Amino acid sequence: MTGRILSPERFEADRPRLRAVAHRMLGSLAEADDAVQETWLRASSADLGEVKNVTAWLTTVVGRVSLNMLRSRRTRREEPLEAAEAGLGAGGDPEEEALLADSVGVALLVVLDSLGPDERLAFVLHDLFAVPFDAIAPLIDRTPATTRQLASRARRRVGGATPAPAGSRAVPAADAPRQRQAVEAFLAATRGGDFEALLALLHPDVVLTADRFVVPTPEPVAVVGARTVARGAMAAAGRARFTGPALLDGRVGLVMAPHGRLRLALLLTVTDEGISRIEIIADRERLAGIEVAVLDD
Fold first, then answer.
1. What's CA 169's distance to the chain center, in Å?
2. CA Rg value for the chain
3. Residue range 172-191, pLDDT digits in tens
4. Strand 251-256, strand 292-293: pairing
5. How far apart (Å, rounded) are the C-alpha atoms in residues 189 and 40?
6. Assigned CATH for 173-293
7. What is the DSSP string of 71-115?
8. Whole-angstrom Cα distance, residue 114 to residue 158?
9. CATH 3.10.450.50 placement within the chain
10. What is the per-residue pLDDT for 92?
């Protein structure tokens, strides 16, 4: 043993990468910062005598810490929707959380949240951070070949390679670009508080429906008319911070996912005259039945 110890300066040089790994593993910026701090506590007391690549070693340490946190999360109660939207109960800066989620891709965080912990680790470390399967396998007590299979399975989920459920309303390939353009413009107008731009996107007789878990209300809500729907969208602009485009059962829509956890899905119907229907889903059983995938760049 050489007694080589990691200096704070050396750790700080890798902090952005470690934070990025932990955020993609955990979906929450506050939890990611906790994982990085735990990584420092472990690394600062370790002997690095046999470590040749400190960055790679630290990446596996933060991966293991995040994996343990992910596994233990299942025993904790889910945060209420209102707390998640306000950034309460998780610490951190909600604005920074939203900006980071947007840069990563809200849909990707949603898909990652649907994976098992081992699948998630294999995909994040290998596909997003180029960690070899030989280094990942010991973290999950698997062989490199099995770890490769886990990452491959996760990759198919991210890309939406599984068949769409029976009865799903996949958009024909010819209409997909128009659908995507309308969805992205709707999100941009909502985030920007641009009432007139939003109004221009909507069919004059657009119908918005929301299940009883969205508000919540005793009964589902139905709203008709472009101005009424646009005013409602402006009032819900706070939710747009954690919202991003996604493939929902093969059609372009929007997902709202504070801290990477799916809370709402918006299905939009687009015609030549604009967005004619918006369906907002918050029912957890229905959300669980929707296949979410990441849109191609």
1. 23
2. 21
3. 544 788 899 999 999 999 99
4. unpaired
5. 42
6. 3.10.450.50
7. HHHTTSPPPPHHHHHHTTTS-S-HHHHHHHHHHH-HHHHHHHHHS
8. 10
9. 173-293
10. 60
Given 3.40.50.920, 1.20.140.160, 3.40.30.10, 3.30.300.110, which CATH number is that of 8-159? 1.20.140.160
DSSP state, residue 219: S
pLDDT band at 169 (very low <50, low <70, confident <90, very high): low
> Among 162, 158, 160, 136, which Cα is nearest to 148's?
136
What gap in Å lies between CA 108 and CA 106, rounded to an integer?
Answer: 5
73-83 burial code (b ≥16 CB/10 A, e <16) = eeeeeebebee
- Contact yes or no for 97/87 (Cβ under 8 A): yes
Helix (H/G/I), strand (E/B), else coil: 203: strand
* pLDDT band, very low/low/confident/very high, at 239 (cuts 50, 70, 90): confident
- What sections of the chain are H helices per DSSP? 8-26, 29-44, 54-73, 81-86, 94-104, 106-114, 117-123, 133-136, 144-159, 176-192, 195-201, 226-235, 284-288
Phi, psi dihedrals of residue 42, rounded to the nearest 5°? -70, -45
Model's pTM, two decimal places? Answer: 0.84
Tokens 């955020």 sit at which residue?
23
Nearest to 292 by CA among 222, 241, 233, 243: 243
- Cα dist from 116 to 25, 93, 123, 151, 282, whole Å: 11, 27, 11, 11, 22
Where in the chain do CATH 1.20.140.160 domains reside? 8-159
Distance between CA atoms of residues 171 and 69, nearest Å:
38
For residue 216, is the peptide bond before it cis, meaning its omega torsion is within 30 degrees of 0?
Answer: yes
How large is the average pLDDT for residues 257-281?
94
